[in-house]
Amino acid sequence: MTQFKKNNHQLPTEVATEVAKLHATLPTAEWKEIRNAYATTLRNHGWTLQSVAELFHWSRERVRQVAKITDASTAEELTKSYGLTIPELPLKPVKPSPVYIEPSPETLARLLELQPLARKVRSNSPKFRAEAEEYTRLLNYSHTTEGVTLYRLGKRLGTTHGAIRFRLARYGYLKPSNGTSKVYHPILEKNRVR
After folding, report:
1. Signed CA dihedral, 112, 113, 117, 118: sign only
2. DSSP state of 177
3. For the range 17-20, what are the long-range contacts, defined as Cβ-Cβ under 8 Å and sequence gap of 24 or more?
4. Which pTM does this prediction carry?
5. Which tens digit of pLDDT belongs to each residue from 140-179?
6. 110, 138 in Cβ contact below 8 A?
């Protein structure tokens, strides 16, 4: 089933013409009664506060107050008795929410297991280097093969997408966009575990 949303509603010009003619022909007290009834009826049929406010040159708050104090069933009958039309709402289809690709449960479990160890790698130390290599390889696999965005990976791992991008660049899986960045110094080959 397609969902629809209301936005930027504007009542048709015919409605404004009808209202202006009625206003010109009715006495003030009767006009106020029918005006309030019509405003309430339009609100009950789904028209926005803004669209009704523009019709009567009111504020949205005034429309809300009038709709609150006016009896809906009486307002509907009064509107019909004066022959005022209630136009259909112009509804726009709602875009479906995007579906995000998630990392596979096995990959995510292994990444979460390796993450604390991969963070312990320091400088030229060989300690935890193998875990860091596997962690980075899994990040790259999840991003390139499984199609998971770096942002989504960062959300699942509790880190930023920039940190993941930096790690992938340091380990040689990504290249800097301009090719001259001094920030992305690759890890020396002698320190790599292959």
Report:
1. negative
2. S
3. 18/84, 18/85, 19/55, 19/56, 19/84
4. 0.54
5. 999 999 999 999 999 999 999 999 998 998 888 887 666 6
6. yes
How far is it, in rounded angstroms, from Cα 27 to Cα 134?
84
- Report which residue type is found at 68: K
Fill in the DSSP letter of residue 99. P
Task: Report the C-alpha gap between 58 and 49 in whole angstroms.
Answer: 10
Start-end of H helices in 48-95: 49-56, 60-69, 72-81
Dist. CA 38–CA 16, nearest whole Å: 12
How many CB atoms are closer than 10 A to CB 173?
A: 16
- CA–CA separation, 101 and 85 (whole Å): 48
Instruction: Report helix, strand or coil for 162.
Output: helix
Sequence-separated (6 or more) residues with CB below 8 Å from residue 67:
39, 40, 43, 44
Q: Give the span between the Cα atoms of 14 and 68, in whole angstroms.
A: 26
Grouping H, G, I as helix, E, B as strand and the rest as coil, residue 90 is coil
Give the β-pairing of 4-5 and 92-93: antiparallel
Task: Give the length of the chain.
Answer: 194
- Domain map (residue ranges) of the chain: 4-93, 105-191
Q: How close are the terminal C-alpha atoms of the chain, in Å?
A: 53
